[in-house]
Amino acid sequence: MRIEKHAHNVEHSYMEPRVLIGKTVIHVEVAKDTETIRTGLSGRDTLASDRGILFVFPRPKWYRFWMRNMRFSIDMIWIRGDKIVGVTENIKNEFDPAHPHFYKAPEKVDHVLEVNAGFAKRKNICAGDTVVFNNIRPQFEIVRMNDTDKEQWNQFVERNQSIVGTFLGTWEWGDFQKKLGLHIERYAVKEGVNIAAMFTLIRYKLPFGLYYGYMPRGPVIAKEYVDAEMKYFEILQAIQEWAKKELSKFIFLRMEPPLLSLSRDFEMYGLRTPLYTIQPPHNTVVPLTITEEEILKNFHPSTRSNIKRAERRSVICEMEKEFGEEGYRHFFSMIKSTIARGHGKNAYPSETYLRTFLSYNHILNKNKPYDPARVSIGVFCGYHDGIPAATHIVVFFGDTATYLFGASYTEHLNSKVDTYLHFAAMKEAKRLGMRYYDLGGIDEDVWPSLTRFKRQFGGDEIYYVGNVDVPLKPPLYHTYNILKKMLKKSRGQL
After folding, report:
1. 236-274 per-residue burial string, b: 16 or more CB within 10 A, e: under 16
2. How does pLDDT run across 286-333, given as a tens digit for each residue?
3. Are strands 362-363 and 376-384 parallel, antiparallel or unpaired?
4. Across all residues in the chain, what is the average pLDDT?
5. Which of 7, 351, 361, 392 could serve as a FRET partner for 134 with CA atoms 20 to 30 Å apart?
6. What is the pLDDT of residue 7?
7. How open is the CA angle 25-30-31, to the nearest 5 degrees?
8. Cα dist. 240→79, 91, 196, 262, 285 in Å?
């Protein structure tokens, strides 16, 4: 039989999956992703007498099955949790495509077991029987991490990084959030002795003693799980079930999984996409694995021309070993100048935020080796005729250098110092053996001129799915979104 929904790929573990009902042992194939759930037993000629196929769903719902392309009759055993809620016996392998007949359980289920017709009666299987699953679902354990785990944490994040925004999942970024007065917790998701994922959870207060949790660019998931879509969603589901038990005052979790797309069945896993994103979902990234000449060749002709113009106009770049009070004074003055020419639109964080960020994190020093498992900051200062003209702040972690903040004096714009600083940062990242230079978020509607400027560097555009919400208290989550939408509308943001 096949299901009239979606799902993927029969999966065998090292120990064969089995279902135990009383003294009856049934060896099963497990169908739990789009393709294998859709296909089921259709097209097969037989099924061994002691075997079955078990459909595993992430949560109890009404699932409809039909007999399309079936070649033998079956029994269907409907299961919710560890109890059989119904048995439909001797379903004939008959199918009329003009008038298809659907079969469904007497109540919502999360497992459906298909066996040969007559099996249930022969083994005296009926509603109310207890079911034991062996080697069906992965067993994940979520454990709290402490300060002694810092090295292991960053090594995992660096080893399993995505191209964009990985530094947001690092130990240093979590400590930086603490410095800002936020409550953070760190967790690892373990499958046996293996770590499948790690995530930093930032706790945000809501009225009436409630909270929501935010995982910046997380969870960071081991690459072998990212490559298997079903495993990935099982980890997200394990986090969801853990949160329901352990985070009783949270109404939802907001994740930023590094996925390029969501399965069309993502709502089946209890996931929702909110109205807005926290980190930009679209970024432009310049590959650094080619030669410097090839990097320049990929730039727009006007960008190459502006770099040469900057050199002719005596623009130079220096990497600061520290950021002193004079540097802060110029940087904040440059920010005011940048905001003014943007008609007063301010996209910068507060002065306290920037001072905390720059004073807490390690400033990259050209004379010392680069550690890819440690967050480092590159402070690129541009001078025009010996006068401070622009400052760029770049984060270095793993294989990616990320442009985070930048500002310049309006009177020095014609020197093309901003373009020159980006190229200087790319060359430094390449010298350190990095693979990517992330110019940051792009959005034609919100930042049209900035997006055009960044695109002229000829980078690849990376599109992540953005925020994904896990409602833990659905009615309150729905209310929260209504209020948030009304607030945004009143501010003219929708």
Report:
1. bbbbbeebeeebeebbbbbbbbbbeebbebbebbbbbeb
2. 999 999 999 999 999 999 999 999 999 999 999 998 888 999 999 999
3. parallel
4. 89
5. 7
6. 36
7. 145
8. 21, 36, 15, 17, 32
